[in-house]
Specification:
The chain is α+β, with helices and mostly antiparallel strands. The relative contact order is 0.24. The chain has one domain: Ribosomal Protein S5, domain 2. α2 crosses α4. Helix content is about 40%, strand content about 20%. It contains four helices and four strands; from the N terminus they run αβββαβαα. The chain is globular and about 35 Å long. It has a four-stranded mixed sheet. Keywords: Endonuclease, Hydrolase, Nuclease, RNA-binding, tRNA processing. Its EC number is 3.1.26.5. It comes from Olsenella absiana. GO terms for molecular function: ribonuclease P activity.
Amino acid sequence: METIKSKKEFERVFSGGRRYNHRLVRITVLRVSEGGLNKVAFVAPKRLGNAVFRNRCKRVLRAAAYECGLPSEDASIIMFATKATHGASSVEVAYALSQLLRKAGVRCDGD
């Protein structure tokens, strides 16, 4: 899975991307036609909790992204964990992610 690693790539997605929210996950999407990179990133901010809590959230996000077939050929996506991500299963987060991707107009292989 190709991931966004550099600060420059993050800034590119943040500045040009659109944001979509769900209780379990938040995403920022930059379409390829708008200069996308076809990569994905997983973010769990420090305000969520300690390292163990944040790492669990990122594992759930990675599993959900795998179920949805990310990274998509259509866009670059940054996925943000929420407090509710920790207690949710990867299947629940994958369903929420597929709904957000549909809103964003990005193809999800998990559908």
